[in-house]
Amino acid sequence: MKLTEIKEILNADVITGDSHLGDEFEEVCSADLMSDVLAFATPGTILLTGLTNVQSVITAHVAEVGAVVYIRGKRPDEDAIKLAMQKNLPLLASPLTMFEACGRLYKQGLKSGSSTAK
Prior knowledge:
Elements: H1 3-9, E1 13-16, E2 27-30, H2 34-40, E3 46-49, H3 54-62, E4 67-70, H4 78-87, E5 91-93, H5 98-107, E6 111-112
Helix pairs in contact: 2-3, 3-4
């Protein structure tokens, strides 16, 4: 599924990474604990999180996440936005809860982007 479709499904705004709206994604993971992202996220997945500081971008970069969607109407701070631009990482913001965002994406056929077998 293209990032632009995910944006529409989640009623999200693009913060950085307009040039990535054509990128394809098959998996999503959700976490507010960045240690869980590092331990379980599949490279290339979309990360749904409520953590809006620079650590979310650092973690996404290290875990090779393809895009970050901030949920519950939260928006990243300026340091996170600057770093995401440097790392060429798309950031989006959705007003939905994590539960609803995950449910909508699952319903549209995206798979879990986290593995307990790492």
